[in-house]
Amino acid sequence: MSRPPAPEACSPSRRRVLGSAAGATLVAAAGVGSASAAPSAASSAAPSALESASDTGDRHVSYREWSGRDVVVGRFSGRRDHVDPFDDTATSRSYDVATWVSPVVRPGFGLTELVASWNADTPGRSWVEVAVRGRTDGVATMEYVLGRWCRYDPTQGGGIHRTSVKGQGDSVATVYTDTLATRSGHVLDEWQLVVRLMRPTGTRETPRLRSVGAMASALPDTERVPRSPQGRARGQVLDVPTFSQETHIGHFPQWDNGGEAWCSPTSTSMVLAYWGVGPRRDETAWVTEAMPSEADPQVDFAARNVYDYTYDGGGNWPFNTAYAATRPRMRAFVTRLRSLTEAEEFIAAGIPLITSVSFEKGELDGAGYGTNGHLMVVVGFTRDGDVVCNDPASHLVRDNGEVRVVYDREQFENVWVPHSGGIVYVIHPERHRLPRAPRREPNW
Question: What residues contact residue 21 under an 8 Å CB cut-off, 6+ apart?
Fold first, then answer.
């Protein structure tokens, strides 16, 4: 099928800036823009394969999360005025503030990057702000804002335009969209999350934090990793629906124009459809009213509801997982995996993974394009250990039937692990158990 010229890629991604820290030499996009009933739960992980593949060596990753009673927030005892920079009226609004602070986390290594993720409810015009602070050489850092988020944008009745925050760098660290990264020569020995729940003053529109966590890492500057040993998902492929981002080229310019820029919301939509919790027809009515022939309005819906107005795109990692967790009884978070052997644990547990990759054209046989940042879904593994993916770029063809593809295991591992550090979105129902995490430096 012929394809019209691709739109220009969106603004430079923080994936490019963070590439050297993750051991990547990211390349200019060539066709794909920057970003951005289920099987039952698995039994206990096979310790030999998992623990061998998860031996940290110099690839340190850890994940900590709090939920339930551990994230109960006290009284709204503070007050704050805030101007939404994307509100045309530029009106300052007053909010009552309740603050939750995590315990101090000492990961046991000097971290160089951190990505937080959260699951929250934000009724009415309430919203949440997630920040992190730490210590380096015994000295406290400033507090870095990792996101200001609410479920809906203001035209849908939400409180603010969800956004990352620019210009927070100091001599110790900086924030690239959703990722805290330390400056050269600096590490953080400990970290602590701070979440502020914002309620319009004089209302009872109270946000609720259901869970919050963060992935901290310190990764080697290496361009390649060895092929990982096969794990427990040999020959298993999950029945994840296929959606192509290419069928949405030119949709809704106000949310990054569809197509090349929508790999992340398209991938998130595929996983939500797998779990049967995508948006209802009444929720996507605004899409079909504008585009009556649209076959996959859930992708347009997701693109709007993960959009970061500062990043100017849909590739903000925790905004995608926060959106996924707004669906009924869902939980979602961002972490890093060390290898495809670890990824196989999730497939064996019936949980597809959304992965962040980048590669030059020709580095990943069968893709047919190159990209400086792309999201795709790992849905299974062949008997030989190669990776079965739902790639929303669909060979740059506007066809859902072109989305399912098999990629060489070693090639895929090397466009994923060194380049994004092994970033994944983990999206699953609250009652669907995760596989057992590695004992040393658990990363989920």
Answer: 112, 113, 181, 219, 221, 421
CA–CA dist 263, 240 (Å, integer) = 16
- Judge whether 316 and 34 are in contact, CB under 8 Å: no
258 burial via Cβ count (<10 Å: 0-12, 13-18, 19+): buried
The answer to whether the beta carbons of residues 118 and 212 sit under 8 Å apart is: yes
Instruction: Enter the tokens of residue 122.
Output: 């934000």
Token pair belonging to 104 = 């101090």
16-56 confidence digits (pLDDT tens): 445 433 333 223 333 344 333 333 334 344 445 666 555 66
Domains and CATH numbers, the chain: 14-57+223-429 (3.90.70.10), 60-218 (2.60.120)
Cβ 181 vs Cβ 113: under 8 Å: yes
How far is the C-alpha of 145 from the C-alpha of 129, rounded, in Å? 7
Interstrand relation of 60-67 and 208-218 (parallel, antiparallel or unpaired): antiparallel
In the block, residue with structure tokens 């009652």:
431
Confirm if 357 and 415 have CB atoms less than 8 A apart.
yes
Q: What is the per-residue pLDDT for 347?
A: 98
Q: What phi and psi, each to the nearest 5 degrees, are found at residue 298?
A: -65, -25
CA distances from 195 to 80, 120, 143, 215, 432 (A): 14, 11, 11, 16, 26
pLDDT digits (tens, 9 = 90+) for 213-252: 999 999 999 999 999 999 999 999 999 999 999 999 999 9
pTM of the full predicted structure? 0.90
> Which residues in the chain land under pLDDT 50?
1-17, 19-47
